């Protein structure tokens, strides 16, 4: 039996090392599904419930493994559903290939059923974006698409019309008129690991050696550089600040770490940013420039693999384009180790205070359950090599501050798109990549409700993910954002009756439990985490617990008060929470 084009597509992906494709079939990709069926021994198809989730799974797979993630959707609506997940990949630089179907070539342009020109729709999201119109374009277009996705750490998109999918592989139905021949290509890609030349390193070393009060700002681009980064921090007596996406790059209990930056960051980081004269930026494109030092106030050395990112956020004195670990290895011997560690010690003291303050907020005796306590207990329940996935929302603040990076733990969320709902599909994608590892989704009730059907996906694929819902019955993050603008909350609390997510977990064939009392939480988590299959713990937390910035500004407090004056509902409960924290803080001093 001769091969169809879809087989050429799938077997070439297998040659690239692709073993998993997440997606949903449809009449626009029946040929591709046949290709997958014929080669199921090499590439497994993971059926899911929503294409958006398939794209999130491919993105998480790519983020966690560093290898290509692949998702598949039918023509028209299926492809449209992929978009949000693909933008997540684009903005967080995850290499992802999206494959979609297209109407038969004979009807294109006739307004045929489901005729959506996905190649045009994906123009903005995809770095490489092609419709296959001739069988002889494969496998070359697969090679170019995959290589582009890997090299640019971006989204590539191939859309294949129905008739081409089932045409005989390698044939060309048309007479060739130009002196052209399809190129014969290879399924090869080698990641560059550049290290800047000595004279550039020397310039960076000079700036760093001159610095009196230095900080390191590390992003996810520094994830393989953790050991050498700590040695550099030691030599320069420089505390390390971590972006949220870069939370996993250095353990939270490292003596150098001052935790996160920005609204969900720590007070010591905010103080440090005000204090420094020199900033060493490593593998980060942290976008909230308001939380960085005033432009021109500090000397900046920035190391990034991507030349387009160096100098993007702050005026940069010494740009270094290179692999972060390799560049730091080469830079370290040029640095003069400090004898005076006072600057570092000052922030180690501040971090001791901050950790005590966070521990006080994790108090188990609060009722309703404090989200900080929940995040802390999840951290306690997780193994030292657990992977935590998280959603956008207040949930990200709780995870940033109260879920500890230690051992080989990893942490993933939608960093730059900051979309709701990736946590659950991320966990599924990562559990596929690492079957033996503990993978926990710590997510909001709003985010969970968006893609909750994927819990069922986890059950029938036998993926033992654990899902913990920080259930405040609201779009908590937005509630607090509205108040910080001085506006009373509006349209952010979910109505009654409260949905029973534990019942849904059970109905989907998994384990589910609802927790409403703090005393029940440790046992419930222990039992759920000990379950062989997928388990869900739905925890009712205090909806009136604000994710306070590390350092509250006068302006923020004033706006909060304005919202109160203008009719903020639940004033009493919110005031009690704020007041309780204040008392706790006073007690600490
Ligand atoms: C797809 C999408 N819609 C809306 C938003 C705006 N948004 C950001 S966080 C948030 C609330 C999320 O609610 P939930 O998942 O319950 O988390 P919580 O903030 O309550 O912890 C919203 C609506 C978004 N980021 N993404
Ligand atoms: Mg919520």
Summarize the structure in words.
With 589 residues, the chain is an alpha/beta fold. The protein has three domains: 5-165, 3-Layer(aba) Sandwich (Rossmann fold); 198-347, TPP-binding domain (Rossmann fold, 3-Layer(aba) Sandwich), CATH 3.40.50.1220; 361-588, 3-Layer(aba) Sandwich (Rossmann fold). Helices cover 40% and strands 15% of the residues. It contains 22 helices and 18 strands. The protein has helices at 5-15, 30-38, 51-65, 77-91, 118-121, 140-152, 162-166, 198-210, 226-236, 267-275, 324-331, 342-361, 371-381, 394-402, 423-433, 445-450, 454-460, 476-484, 501-507, 521-530, 554-565, 571-588, and strands at residues 20-23, 44-47, 69-73, 96-102, 128-131, 155-161, 214-218, 240-242, 257-260, 278-282, 299-304, 318-321, 387-390, 410-412, 439-444, 466-471, 511-515, 535-540. The strands form three sheets. A six-stranded parallel sheet has the order 2-1-3-4-6-5, with helices on both faces. α1 crosses α2 (30-38), α3 runs parallel beside α4 and α13 packs across α14. The longest helix has 20 residues, at 342-361. It is globular, with a radius of gyration of 25 Å. It starts with a helix and ends with a helix. Magnesium ion is lined by residues 393, 444-446, 472, 474-476.
Q: Please state the second-level CATH architecture of the largest domain.
A: 3-Layer(aba) Sandwich
Structural class: alpha/beta
Radius of gyration, taken over Cα atoms and rounded to an integer in Å: 25 Å
> What's the shape?
globular
CATH fold-level label of the largest domain: Rossmann fold
Which CATH class of the largest domain?
Alpha Beta
Instruction: Give the total of beta strands.
Output: 18
Helix content: 25-40%
List ligands, each type once. thiamine diphosphate, magnesium ion
- Identify the CATH homologous superfamily of the largest domain: Thiamin diphosphate (ThDP)-binding fold, Pyr/PP domains
Number of continuous helical runs: 22
- What is the topology, as strand order, of the major beta sheet? 2-1-3-4-6-5
Biggest beta-sheet profile: 6 strands, parallel
Mean pLDDT, rounded to whole units? 95
Oligomer: single chain
* Low-confidence spans: none
Percentage of residues in strands: 5-15%
State the domain count: 3
C-alpha end-to-end distance: 79 Å
